[in-house]
Design goal:
Elements lengths: L5 H11 L3 H10 L4 H18 L7 E8 L5 E9 L2 H4 L2 H17 L4 H6 L1 E2 L2 E2 H12 L4 E9 L2 E6 L5 E8 L7 H14 L11 H17 L7 H16 L5 E2 L2 E5 H8 L4 E9 L2
Antiparallel strand pairs: 1-2, 2-5, 3-4, 6-7, 7-10, 8-9
């Protein structure tokens, strides 16, 4: 075996982005074979990833892509262990690449996204490579693909929280500003659904159960429990679903009233909110 030169090490480093010592060790183990050395580096990443599988990934960034006509968007959350890594250029570039791939390839699930290839490497393999380089667990914690009459993203300061809002009843108007206002509302208030009709039945059952327990504990008459509990549930809907909430930029209006004032009949078809941590 010929000696591993500094030029060889630098070449592998350029090809993979791995550290100098890691590249030298991989080339030595591979007896100068670059393909084998790359495989060794990737295996190192897989080993690091496995060894850190129990670590919490409470830091990271969200990444968004929207179509030129604003009818389609994807939102990705890429998580890591520390804020230091979240701000790393390579981490950010990987997040951008994943968002680009998700928007272009339109996989149905996160699992499918991980198998998509970019220049002969899958997204999962690219994540593994960066894990091997930085020594932290990385994972795609959320992947949302949304379509509609108008789909507007809202990214909160610091890229730790992202929202997609799908609006309907657009009537040909530019509703980008209204969409961002509603996105900000969702980011701040974290509603559970668009309106009461969209609230999950298990949530409703839980809220009624809590309300009835409170009412009984207060000593209210048994024949009044159901009626009072329904009143508490209605209050829950008002406070925790999007359209009836007071609009954060003008409390004199509900979100529904604000949207209707932008253009008659404008409303929210759906929304998704994802947060890091």
């Amino acid at each position: 075996m010929s000696a591993i030169t500094a030029q060889d090490v630098n070449k592998l480093r350029t090809m993979t982005g791995a550290g100098m010592m890691d590249c030298k060790k991989a080339l030595t183990e591979a007896e100068g074979d670059f393909e084998k050395a790359i495989e060794i580096l990737r295996k190192k990443g897989q080993k690091v990833s496995a060894s850190r599988s129990d670590r919490d990934t409470k830091e990271g960034s969200v990444f968004v892509r929207t179509s030129a006509d604003n009818k389609e968007a994807v939102l990705i959350a890429l998580n890591c262990e520390t804020d230091f890594v979240a701000k790393n250029d390579e981490f950010q570039k990987l997040g951008e690449l994943i968002a680009d791939t998700a928007f272009t390839k339109k996989p149905a699930t996160t699992e499918a996204l991980l198998t998509e290839k970019v220049e002969n490497l899958t997204i999962a393999e690219r994540i593994t490579e960066l894990v091997g380089k930085i020594g932290e667990k990385l994972e795609i914690s959320s992947f949302i693909h949304m379509t509609g009459e108008a789909v507007v993203p809202y990214i909160h300061a610091g890229s730790k929280l992202g929202v997609l809002v799908s609006l309907k009843g657009v009537n040909g108007k530019d509703v980008t500003e209204a969409g961002k206002d509603v996105g900000m509302q969702i980011a701040a208030m974290s509603p559970v659904a668009v309106n009461e009709n969209d609230v999950d039945k298990t949530i409703i059952e839980k809220e009624l159960e809590i309300a009835k327990a409170q009412i009984i504990a207060e000593g209210k008459p048994a024949n009044m429990v159901d009626k009072i509990a329904q009143g508490k549930l209605n209050k829950f809907f008002k406070d925790n679903t999007l359209l009836p909430q007071p609009f954060v930029k003008d409390n004199s209006k509900t979100v529904a009233q604000y949207l209707d004032s932008v253009t008659k009949g404008l409303t929210v078809a759906e929304f998704k909110r994802i947060a890091i941590g």
